[in-house]
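Exercise 7b. Backbone tokens:
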């Protein structure tokens, strides 16, 4: 069961500290760790270009969460989408990245999949890092693809 409270300032963490991932079921240590890091950022304010706990944009949250483990992903949602191998939506695991086409029919938003159709993301200006559902009509209609960061991931700029 997931219990979330309202948007809290980034200095005060709330019920997301109680969210856990069952490693026996998901068996994706890298993804589980990245997801835990992202969950700790719930309540942090959105900041365009932000990639620290002082403020995040969507790709900055992903960049930070994986960067804390020494995994260096590209900085933009579009490049993150291009760098990862695709994963069918039916096989999503914690830590997989979910990509959306919001504007101009290009990948322009990314979140970190949690489980049960939920993902963590930095939505937009004026909002805080939060959870959203892939079954929400807004996100469902804009979903593009998912990608996974595998153990052997190495990013080289193209």
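Sequence design result:
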């Amino acid at each position: 069961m997931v219990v979330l409270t309202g948007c809290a300032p980034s200095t005060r963490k709330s019920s997301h500290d109680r969210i856990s991932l069952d490693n026996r079921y998901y068996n994706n240590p890298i993804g589980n760790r990245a997801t835990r890091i992202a969950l700790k950022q719930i309540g942090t304010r959105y900041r365009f270009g932000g990639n620290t706990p002082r403020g995040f944009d969507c790709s900055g949250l992903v960049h930070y969460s994986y960067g804390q483990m020494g995994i260096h992903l590209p900085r933009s949602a579009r490049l993150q989408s291009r760098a990862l191998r695709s994963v069918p939506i039916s096989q999503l695991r914690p830590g997989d990245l979910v990509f959306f086409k919001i504007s101009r029919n290009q990948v322009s938003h990314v979140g970190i999949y949690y489980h049960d159709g939920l993902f963590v993301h930095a939505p937009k200006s004026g909002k805080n890092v939060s959870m959203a559902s892939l079954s929400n009509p807004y996100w469902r209609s804009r979903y593009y693809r998912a990608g996974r960061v595998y153990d052997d991931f190495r990013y080289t700029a193209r």
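Instructor comment: The beta strands are 51-52, 55-56, 85-87, 97-103, 106-113, 118-121, 130-133, 143-148. Helices lie at 23-26, 29-39, 58-67, 77-83, 137-142.
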